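*Target chain*
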Amino acid sequence: MTDVHKAAAVGFARSADAYERGRPGYPETALRHLVAALPPGAVVLDLAAGTGKLTRPLLAAGLEVIAVEPVAQMRAALPAGAQTLDGTAEALPLGDAAVDAVTVGQAFHWFDGDAALAEIARVLKPGGLLALLWNRRVEDDPVNRTIDDLVDPFRGDVPTHRTESWRAAFGRQTQFGPLEEHLFENSQELDADGLEARVASISFIASLDPAERAPVLERARAIAGTGAVKVPYRTELDVCRRL
C-alpha cells in the first residue's frame, strides 16, 4: 500500500468493521446537494472509499461508481454494485478524462495534496466535479469534548482535517476553480456499543497495541453508560470544478 500513512494502513485494516458500525453516514441534505450537481447516470470515482459510507448512497442515486480504496480489509466491505479497485489518490488506476466526478469522503487530509490534485485533474473530464465531504464532530459539544479528552493524548502527528492544512494544495493548483463550502447538520445516537465502535474506528486508536487500546474503549463505553448519547456533527461539503 504505497503512499498510505502507517496509521491509516494499520488502523483501518484493523477497524473496518468498527468503521462501518461506528461512523456516521452523510445527511440526505448534503447528498441531494451533491447529486444535483451531477449529470444523470454520471460516472463517479469515490476515492478512498473505505467501507462504502459514500459509495452506497451514490449508487442508490443511480450513479455509476468506481470505488478506489487501498486498504484491503475496507475494500472487501464495499458494495457489489460498485467497481472496486486497489489504488491511492497519488496513483489512480484510471485513464485520462475517465470520470464525470470525483468524491472524497473523510479522507483528503491523508493525501499528498499536490500529487492527489494532479491525478484527480487527470482522470476528471473538463468541467467535472471534485467533491470533498467531512463529517466533523462539533467540538464545543459536551459529548464531543469528552471524546476528544479521551482520544487526543494518542493523536500524535497523525494527519487531521481539523488543522485545515489540506486546503494549502488548493491554493497552489491551477487546474480547478475555487472551492465552494456548504454546511449541513448531522448527528448520531450511540449506545455503549456504538461509542466503542466510533472510537475504535479512529485510525490512531485502532493502531494501538491491544493492551493499550482496551482501556480506551472501556472509557468510550462509559460515556454512554447504560443509555445513549447524541453525537452532533457538522457535515462540510467542499466542491470545485475541473477547468
Observations:
- The chain has a mean pLDDT of 97.
- The longest helix spans residues 210-224.
- Residues 57 and 108 are 19 Å apart (CA to CA).
